[in-house]
Design a protein that fits this description.
Layout lengths: L13 H6 L6 H7 L4 H13 L2 E2 L2 H13 L1 H6 L2 E4 L9 H15 L6 E5 L7 H4 L10 E5 L12 E6 H6 L5 E12 L10 E11 L15 E6 L5 H14 L5 E6 L20 E5 L7 H6 L5 E5 L7 H10 L7 E4 L9 H7 L1 H9 L3 E4 L7
Parallel strand pairs: 1-2, 2-3, 3-4, 4-6, 5-6, 6-7, 7-8, 8-9, 9-10, 10-11, 11-12, 12-13
Helix pairs in contact: 2-3, 4-6, 11-13
Amino acid sequence: MYAASYPQLVDDLIPYILDAYDHWWPRDYTRLALVSPAWLTHIRKRLYECPTLHTSSSCIAFARAIEGNPLLASLVRGINLRPAVDRDAGASYAVKLMASLRRILALPGVRKVTLGGRLAVDAERFLQFLTNPQHITELCVDGNYPDSDPSTRTGTLEWDDMTACRFVRLQALTLSNLELTVISWGASCGSLISLELDNVAVVGGSIIDVMSDSLDTLRSLRVCVRDVSNAASMDGLLCELTERCTALESLSYEHSSQMAYAFMVTAPSRCPTIRRLRLSGLFVHGVVHLVERCNHLEVLEVVGHEVRIDSMVWANLIASDVIPTLRQLTISPPYWYPRDPCQLSERYHLLRVACGKRDVAFSLDPCWSKF
């Protein structure tokens, strides 16, 4: 008798199978790694490319793993470190954790670094652990804790000239939920392409001092305000950056506090390079000033509970072809509009017709459905 033969999977198809689905869980990878050595090779690349470590013990275990296996260490391209505070740990455990963090942040192939949890407090201390900061292209410091108030700033970062000079290739900087102190006499970090400031309070210095070499390179800017007491300073910073950043293409300004705040009251007269504009949670009662300043928009989103723009204003704007490059429009209806889907659709009939004639993709984002 002949033994039954089964079709065999060609190993070259493994990466295509993994790429065909983007919702793999770590436990899925663990099971697939047991299929064959070929599967193990591809799974390792995915698991170790940019691991996220949420506890001190996982940091210690990961450092032990890469120390004992240089192959695994060579696969790491990014690291997301978010260990929480372990108040019961003794001094010896803390020493072991610090040694593990130094080992992880000394990996030569790392290009992306995120510091969160306890590492976001006085984060400049842990940035010093990076052995090859000149290779870092993406840096994120996030002071958020899982169960904390979204407006709470638990992180702190002091950014000085010495820190800036170490990150000469930095392209993307994300700062979240922290108090920032800038001590600078002109040195800046690389040439940033992307800057995100989410619930950041500048308690000393100015972010402009960090941006001196990025004013001609910055293409994406996102500012999110969660505390109204910080709104005026962020609004001023946003206006200054939009005026001085000559290559800015994408601007997102989000307001998550409970108080309405007007958009760009003192904004510059023109922002001709901006192609994508998102306004969320801001008191927006007119659109003329938007198109006058950003008349080359391709994507426009004006959403939130404080939007007061009537549907006919939008319809007339689209029909007038004031923004000939516009291809996508997402808006929220005013709060006094009917919530019945049929009545709401009738209100926006003329706008849908105008968008259809101009080949503009239109969508509604009724914020009352999110209460």
